[in-house]
Design brief:
The structure is a homodimer. The first copy, chain A, is an alpha/beta fold. Chain A has 2 domains: about 120 residues, Nucleotidyltransferase, domain 5 (2-Layer Sandwich), CATH 3.30.420; about 180 residues, Nucleotidyltransferase, domain 5 (2-Layer Sandwich), CATH 3.30.420.40. In chain A, about 40% of the residues lie in helices and about 25% in strands. The first copy, chain A, contains 10 helices and 13 strands. In chain A, the strands form 3 sheets. In chain A, strands 3-2-1-4-8 form a 5-stranded mixed beta sheet, sandwiched between helices. The first copy, chain A, has a 5-stranded mixed beta sheet with strand order 11-10-9-12-13, with helices on both faces. A 3-stranded antiparallel beta sheet of chain A has the order 5-6-7, covered by helices on one side. The longest helix of chain A is centred in the last third of the chain and has 25 residues. The interface between A and B is large, with 43 and 43 residues. Chains A, B: It comes from Micromonospora sonchi.
Chain lengths: ~325, ~325
Amino acid sequence: MSVGDVAVALDVGGTGMKCALIGVDGAVVHTERHPTDAGRGPDAVVDTILAVAQGLAGRARADGLTPAALGIVVPGVVDEARGVAVWSANVGFRDVPLRELASARLGLPTALGHDVRAGGLAEARMGAGRDAGHVLFVAIGTGIAAAHVVAGSATTGVHGAAGELGHILVRPDGPVCGCGRPGCLEAIASASAVARRYGDLTGTAAARFADTTSDDGSAAGPTSGRTMVTAAQVATRAAAGEELASRVWREAVEALADGLATAQALFDVETIVLGGGLAQAGTGLFDPLRTALRDRLTFHREPQLVPAALGDEAGCLGAALLALDQLETR
Amino acid sequence: MSVGDVAVALDVGGTGMKCALIGVDGAVVHTERHPTDAGRGPDAVVDTILAVAQGLAGRARADGLTPAALGIVVPGVVDEARGVAVWSANVGFRDVPLRELASARLGLPTALGHDVRAGGLAEARMGAGRDAGHVLFVAIGTGIAAAHVVAGSATTGVHGAAGELGHILVRPDGPVCGCGRPGCLEAIASASAVARRYGDLTGTAAARFADTTSDDGSAAGPTSGRTMVTAAQVATRAAAGEELASRVWREAVEALADGLATAQALFDVETIVLGGGLAQAGTGLFDPLRTALRDRLTFHREPQLVPAALGDEAGCLGAALLALDQLETR
């Protein structure tokens, strides 16, 4: 690889695609965003992905750069080894051989990855976990997912489905999760679960707040229109001492601590990096969570608990790392 | 390595040491058992380990074999990279640099490993998981621990404490575990927990069996003096339709299914191998457990659930594999 080489990187989500040209040194040279518009069906989404990737490669060449590789990351179950998007509810993919389609169209060596594992890879190698050999990256947004990164590589599992921290049992008598099972961590501690639970408890009161709290433009989750009070606002109200907000927030923090303690018992990492919307609650999350996690660890070593450093560019940076990694192993 | 080379292998437990000479082809050439007698203190235990290892090496030479390497595995927290037995309650070890002590005494390249991880390694490479690339080995006896083996190597964690499946939360309102936290899997589904729970429910009937109630906290399994009804007997009584036994067994199976579902969500393995005393319950365990696990898996792929194939030699075989592996990487 030479100095003028860049990776074309796409982080495809249910709503939008974050796209970038990223240098071999990790420098972000150029960024773009495009709507995914998943409702159009998987074929149309694939067409958009390929067109956007081609446009980025063209843009690189126009700027005198050489697009050396392409990295695409998507949510759901991703078989990195075969380059297939196995199952992705958000994007509407089911067994899409995206790596082959993209490399055929662009003529570039292409890597297909999982969005959270790619984000974890970037945080572990370039972000908040960069001094640790064993990192667990946990993304808490509409859902909860994790990436276990050891020695700069994220474990994928045999079917590409490893790291589903949102779907571990923490409350056998808890609410039913989107996956159909009761008591999953995601059903209690995701940003959308926190917002929903607060809405349920405050009943009509939540509806009354809605007018005044929508001015920051954020919603409870990308797909939720049910209540206008976001998880971040619940955190703020909890910090201000509001009773119901405090209760919902405490329940979420305790469930999250249970989930992280389980992960630590199994993975034994040095650092846990928290990303996604909920992590933006800052000390309102990290202080009580650190205490609750410490309470749960007996013989296990306590991991560092730190906020993600790369923001919502982590997935794109990870896609670029995956793209560039494959050049090194050729 | 040549055909006459053997590994000297020791699997050190709280009660006894399983010892063997194992050929480079995995053939067990010779076995011995010795008491650990951990009550004598760590120095005496180390002395015994070294003397036994030396005796085995001498025995190999007397038989015309060449002891090429030494592998020792112990329970607890083991730092394989540094060769230190960090913490082992059963054996009484705390930061014992066993690899260095052994290699100095015997003059052989020495590997120190963790007993369950070594057992998992052996099952994954030579036993019930030998056709799978991603294996979770779960040992269920007095406690519960697991080894996650990918591509023939067991993940250790940063401090050597990975795989503590017994200490994940499954029942927040459940019994207090030996580790001090409520609701750990081990407190409900280990062989000792099953025996204890049955004893509690059957009340005086169980108490009458136990003339020596030496409740040292560590001895509630098959070797317990607290109750004469073992987990295997509870399984048999459950199969015969006895009501309390059925209840205790069902609770254990369901907790175990919850624990395995959590592990599968995080690891996404192809095969789960169950070993240890409880796995000897056979179809009485595997049939209901397979059904309960299937009920809990929604989007994740169902792993194969199979009994361990190597019996109680797995730890020793794993110790030999660790010993021989280090010769290959030299």
